[in-house]
Design a protein that fits this description.
Helix content: 10-25%
Order of helices and strands: HEEHEEHEEEHEHEE
CATH architecture of the largest domain: Alpha-Beta Complex
CATH class of the largest domain: Alpha Beta
Shape: globular
Structural class: alpha/beta
Distance between the termini: 27 Å
CATH topology of the largest domain: Adenylosuccinate Synthetase, Chain A, domain 3
Number of helices: 5
CATH superfamily of the largest domain: Adenylosuccinate Synthetase, subunit A, domain 3
Radius of gyration: 17 Å
Largest sheet: 4 strands, mixed
Number of strands: 10
Length: 212
């Protein structure tokens, strides 16, 4: 740090597995938040210049606990198959669902995101309809914040629906290369999360990334 070199700190596991701010008791034993990065690295919080939130353009989960947008139908199977959503070590199928903007907004607040990286946009290239969760219904009440774990167990997602772009995005290297409907979808995710989009990936290769 004193030599003015770039340092990258990565949170292991997702924010919702954080010991303090995740879906306790379905959590890990550490803090994969930006605050945890300061604790784990020994760098004071003011020495961290940028906090990039990395999220897929749909949702996945490994392990137990509430997952409000989880799908248990052919759509989940399609997301899993195209996205290769299987555990890297165990090969266990990941739970899949639509993007949860309520949970993502919560993550943005907890971490203080300065930018958003949207990954796997290309996975949605063949979906005619795409949904995003913008609120929950809990005991008949509509809420737009993340409730405690017990209420997450019974929360029902409320969706906003988008028309799919139905064309490959894997060759896109600039924002202008993306189909208008893909641009509209990404813009909406940024609005809902409350954070500027900095990166969009359209494939697993190093050059398959759009820098905004």
């Amino acid at each position: 740090y004193e030599e003015n070199k770039s340092i990258l700190l990565e949170g292991q596991l997702g924010v919702m597995r954080d010991l303090d701010w995740g879906i306790y008791p379905y959590t890990t034993s550490s803090s994969p938040t930006s605050g945890g990065a300061a604790v784990g690295s020994g760098l004071g919080p003011r020495r961290i210049d940028h906090v990039i939130g990395v999220t897929k353009v749909y949702s996945t989960s490994v392990g137990g606990g509430p997952f409000m947008t989880e799908l248990l139908d052919e759509t989940a199977e399609k997301l899993r198959a195209i996205g290769g959503e299987y555990g890297a070590t165990t090969g266990r199928p990941r739970r899949c669902g639509w993007f949860d903007a309520v949970a993502a907004d919560y993550s943005c607040w907890i971490n203080g995101f300065t930018g958003l990286a949207l990954t796997k946009l290309d996975v949605l290239d063949t979906f005619e309809k795409i949904k995003v969760c913008t609120a929950y219904r809990v005991n008949g009440e509509v809420i737009t914040y993340l409730p405690e774990t017990a209420l997450q167990e019974i929360a029902e997602p409320i969706y906003e629906e988008f028309d799919g772009w139905m064309t490959p995005t894997t060759e896109a290297r600039k924002w202008e290369d993306l189909p208008p409907k893909a641009q509209a979808y990404c813009k909406r995710l940024g609005e809902l999360v409350g954070c500027p989009i900095k990166y969009i990936s359209v494939g697993p290769e190093r050059d398959q990334i759009i820098i905004l």
